[in-house]
Amino acid sequence: MSLASRPDIISFAGGMPGNELFPVDEVEELFRGLDLKTRQAAFQYGPTPGLPSLLESLGGFLEKKGLPVQKNRLMITTGSQQGLSIVAKAFVDPGDRVLTEYPCFIGAIAAFRSAGAKIVPIPVDEEGLDIAMLRLEAARPDPAKFLYITPYFHNPAGMLYSSQRKRELVEALQGRNIPLIEDDAYGDLWFHEEDRERLKPIKALDPEGIDVCYLGSFSKILGPGLRLGWLLAPPAIYEKCELIKQSADACSPSFTQVIADAFMRSGQIDSYIASVRQQYRLRASAMAAGLRKCLPDYVRWNEPKGGFYIWLTLPEGTDAAEILKHAIDGGVVFVTGSTFDPEGRRTNAIRLSYCNNTPEEIERGIPIVASAIRTVCG
Ligand SMILES: Cc1ncc(COP(=O)(O)O)c(C=O)c1O
After folding, report:
1. Residues 60, 166: one domain?
2. How far is the C-alpha of 152 from the C-alpha of 198, rounded, in Å?
3. Which of 37, 91, 254, 359 could disulfide-link to 145, CB 3.0 to 4.6 Å?
4. How far is CA 254 from CA 42, 56, 218, 228, 268, in A?
5. Rg (CA), the chain
6. Which domain holds residue 319?
7. Apex CA 269: angle with CA 302 and CA 61, to 5°?
8. Distance separating alpha carbons of residues 340 and 155, to the nearest angstrom
């Protein structure tokens, strides 16, 4: 992070939206236009599950995605990172196994570890989780406490699960007493209309015989500084989670809940998401064009369909940390793949994020990454 904030460095490291994309003026105007009672409530404590008005507007937003809001309970969390900590505490006793993807979002690894979980990583390919391995795990007599997945524009792998893979995953879990934690932090940031069918959450399919807890966030569709996310869970699981949240922070920030609610009710959320989607699409295509032009053939990567990231797989045995050193000398930073390996062993991958750079910066930065790769790998 300290390198990434240096002005002479191009950072492909953070998963942060571009500051210049935030709706600063719109939010200022919205807040000023609220009645005094609502503006005062913004300074006050609120109910643990969230401000009722936001629960209602967010509930409507989620229902439009087909999510079964009425059959479940919705809770506002302090970022979806808090949602991850809460579900970890709700399900895990020290030493319990939990199933994750490899690679896996680092914040999830941290949350599960701090609850004492033993993490069992299951690899993903460009269509989703390795189902044969999942079936083996699901058939064990001592089932894991849950499976955690990020099927929609994965962090860090960038990929989008196929509908077929989601179906197979559901079949593998049904009746196995392994709840599914479905993390949908990036699903709204799709680039192509034809992918939208694949973005339907598993929670929206409402499969029989499996408890699905659905996590989401305002971080990538409004701003991470709001620190607001959500958890949609079956009532029995929700009740336990609410007690855990109560002891963690009593309530999420009322101030930003008021802002998020006003933003949703004004109808601006949809047009804002559409505008940032367009920006990220431009940035992604600048990065993909640079990679196509500059990378050697032995590097594998996928054209991004949405979200923030491109995942590069280097030849077996490559140490991406060496590549990073050369890239920093050239003025570029990124995150090495071992960060996202719960076992910290796989060193031959790189995560590049395009969310926080202009297409011009991306065009300047990618040849530096490619040259660092050639220096180390030949
Ligand atoms: C997959 C995924 N889940 C959850 C989060 C946490 O987001 P937040 O706590 O800002 O809502 C992130 C942030 O990068 C993420 O990439």
Report:
1. yes
2. 8
3. 91
4. 5, 15, 14, 10, 20
5. 21
6. 10-22+270-377
7. 85
8. 9
- Tell me the two tokens of residue 118: 């033993």
Specify the residue with its C-alpha closest to ligand 1, atom 2. Answer: 185
Cα of 378 vs centre of ligand 1, distance in Å, is 35
| Side chain identity at residue 100, one-letter code | T
CA of 374 to the centre of ligand 1 (A): 32
Report the residue among 76, 183, 222 best suited for mutation to probe ligand 1: largest number of ligand atoms under 8 A from its CB: 183
Nearest CA to ligand 1 atom 12: 185
150 CA closest ligand 1 atom index: 1
Looking at the structure, tell me whether residues 58 and 86 fall in a common domain. Answer: yes
With bands split at pLDDT 50, 70 and 90, how would you rate the model's confidence at 194? very high
* Alpha-carbon span 262 to 260, nearest angstrom: 6
Indicate which CATH number applies to the domain containing 369. 3.90.1150.10
pTM over 0.85: yes
Interval 251-262: pLDDT, tens: 999 999 999 999
How many angstroms separate the alpha carbon of residue 78 from the centre of ligand 1?
A: 11
Average pLDDT value for the chain: 96
Whole-number Å distance, alpha carbon 83 to ligand 1 midpoint, is: 10
Residue with tokens 């000398």: 329
Strands (E) across the chain are located at 10-11, 73-77, 97-102, 118-125, 128-129, 147-149, 180-183, 212-217, 229-233, 309-313, 332-333, 335-336, 349-353
pLDDT at 1: 65
Tell me which amino acid residue 371 is: S
Tokens representing 219 are 């971080």
Element (H, E) at 128: strand 128-129
In angstroms, what is the span from residue 324 Cα to ligand 1's centroid?
Answer: 24
Residues whose beta carbon lies within 6 Å of some atom of ligand 1: 15, 79-81, 105, 107, 150, 155, 183, 185, 217, 219, 224, 229
My answer on whether 233 and 120 are in the same domain is: yes
Please give the Cα distance from 69 to 230 (Å, whole number): 12
